[in-house]
Amino acid sequence: MTNHVTTKWLGNMAFESDNPSGTTLRIDASPEDGGEGNGLRPKALMLSSVAGCSGLDVASLIKKMKLEVDDFVIEIDAELTEEHPKYYHTVTIEYHFHGKNLDEKKLQRVVDLSVEKYCGVMEMFRHFAKTDIKTFFHNN
């Protein structure tokens, strides 16, 4: 399977990139880097991609397993190398589950399945970064 994306320069440091879904997003550099700051940053988009990929897995498994979850948030902190080309060398991904009747054992299994088996973006990250996975349960 091949995905195709077209990214068009809008002038200055801004770009518009499409997606196989038909939607677009704007990419722009920060003002410090010559842009206007009116778009998403490429490296941060990588973090959104890993969160989105794993999040879709987790949401699907929560639904399939009929687990009770009121809210679910993924927080990511990533450290860049000092030298150019700068890339993420360490990535900490936190899964936060909120609810009254959280089945912690099953939810941890859901996270593990996404991280170890289903999320292709997570697998790509493991090729260039140390990934640290943490799961938190917030029983309301």
TrEMBL record:
InterPro entries in the cross-refs: KH_dom-like_a/b, OsmC/Ohr_fam, OsmC/Ohrsf
Domain of life the protein comes from: Bacteria
Region: Disordered, residue numbers: 13-39
Protein name: OsmC family protein
Annotated source species: Sinomicrobium weinanense
